[in-house]
């Protein structure tokens, strides 16, 4: 199915294909082995992120309007149906691109340092 990769190294949104949940961590990249779903949009689209992103290599992160902290590293966006199964996202690539605020690596590290 169709999904979007938020590629923080290249600061772009890419359309990709995800066959099932086992494809999510490799698609996130940056040595991701465990992913989390910290954000679900009103339309039930879900952002999947590296749950250990600060421990893996990353080039930056991203935020969205009204967020108080960045997501570190890449992310995947997929839709979710009423049974919790993944679907094609309802959010368009253009809508997603308009929501993203790119954050550089230094700002991500500064944010993370306050918790150490």
Identify the notable features of this structure and list them briefly.
116 residues; alpha+beta; six-stranded antiparallel β-sheet; three-stranded antiparallel β-sheet; 9 strands; globular
Calculate the terminal CA-CA distance, rounded to whole Å. Answer: 39 Å
User: Total helix count?
Assistant: 3
Extended strand count: 9
Question: In percent terms, what proportion of residues is strand?
Answer: 35-45%
Shape: globular
The biggest sheet amounts to: 6 strands, antiparallel
Class per helix and strand makeup: alpha+beta
User: Helix and strand string, N-terminal first?
Assistant: EEHEEEEEEHEH
Task: Summarize, please.
With 116 residues, the protein is an alpha+beta fold.
């Amino acid at each position: 199915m169709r999904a979007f990769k938020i590629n923080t190294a290249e600061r772009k949104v890419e359309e990709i294909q995800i066959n099932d949940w086992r494809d999510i961590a490799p698609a996130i990249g940056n040595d991701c082995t465990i992913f989390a779903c910290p954000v679900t949009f009103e339309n039930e689209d879900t952002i999947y992120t590296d749950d250990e992103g600060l421990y893996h290599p990353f080039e930056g992160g991203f935020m969205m309007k009204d967020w108080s902290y960045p997501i570190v590293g890449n992310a995947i966006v997929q839709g979710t149906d009423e049974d919790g199964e993944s679907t094609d996202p309802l959010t368009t690539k253009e809508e997603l691109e308009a929501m993203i605020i790119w954050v550089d690596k230094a700002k991500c590290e500064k944010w993370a340092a306050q918790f150490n």
